[in-house]
Amino acid sequence: MLKLGALKPAPGSRPKRQRIGRGHGSGMVKTGGEGGKGQSVRSGGGKGPAFEGGQTAWARRLPHGRGYSQKARDRGHFGTRLAVVNLARLARWDPGIEITPESLKEHGLVKAALDGVKILGGGDSTLPPGLRFRDVLFSKTARESLLAAGADLPVSSRAESPVSSRAESRGAP
């Protein structure tokens, strides 16, 4: 039976650390494997993570005026990522089930809702009448196709993009 006290690493998997400054026979004397003199040998030496080879660093190239934002550059943090569903994939949807980001995920039409779900138009498919939607965005062509098919769409005029609803909450015109 294996006991915790008897556990050992496999032979050779944990090599001994190199001991520095323990005699000339070791080969690790004087500079101790660090090479010659210079900045990289000193404690804390070397260049920082923001060093760009002498050109002006990114943080110093930024304008420092009031209101300047990195939102346009940093899409990963500030961008709105939408999961998209093509209208043709809703052709076999049961009209009794309301179409929400959660129901689309349950039925495998989107992997993750991300920042929202958007229905895109295109494709010639017959849609079942009476589809109901909630918390979903629509492209212009998708909205037109769904209205023609008799779907029940939210009446919000600002439902086209999540960016407009954020601006509305800030009091923007």
Summarize this entry quickly:
This protein is mainly alpha-helical. The chain has a domain at 80-169: Ribosomal Protein L15, Chain: K, domain 2, CATH 3.100.10. Helix content is 18%, strand content 6%.
Q: Which percent range describes the beta-strand content?
A: 5-15%
Order of strands across the main sheet: 1-2-3
Give the CA-based shape. elongated
**What are the low-pLDDT stretches, counting only 5+ consecutive residues below 50?**
163-170
Oligomer: single chain
Radius of gyration: 31 Å
* Cα separation of the termini: 75 Å
Instruction: Give the SSE order as H and E letters.
Output: HHEHEEHH
DSSP summary: helix tally: 5
What fold name goes in the CATH topology slot of the domain at 80-169? Answer: Ribosomal Protein L15, Chain: K, domain 2
Average pLDDT across residues? 83
Percentage of helical residues?
10-25%
Number of strands: 3
CATH architecture of the domain at 80-169: Ribosomal Protein L15, Chain: K, domain 2
Highest-level CATH class of the domain at 80-169: Alpha Beta
Largest sheet: 3 strands, parallel
Model description:
The protein has 5 helices and 3 strands, in the order H-H-E-H-E-E-H-H. The chain is elongated, with a radius of gyration of 31 Å. It has a domain at 80-169: Ribosomal Protein L15, Chain: K, domain 2, CATH 3.100.10.10. By secondary structure, it is mainly α. The termini are far apart. Strands 1-2-3 form a 3-stranded parallel β-sheet. The chain has helices at residues 58-61, 75-78, 101-106, 140-149, 162-169, and strands spanning 83-86, 117-120, 137-138. Helix 3 (101-106) links the parallel strand 1 and strand 2.
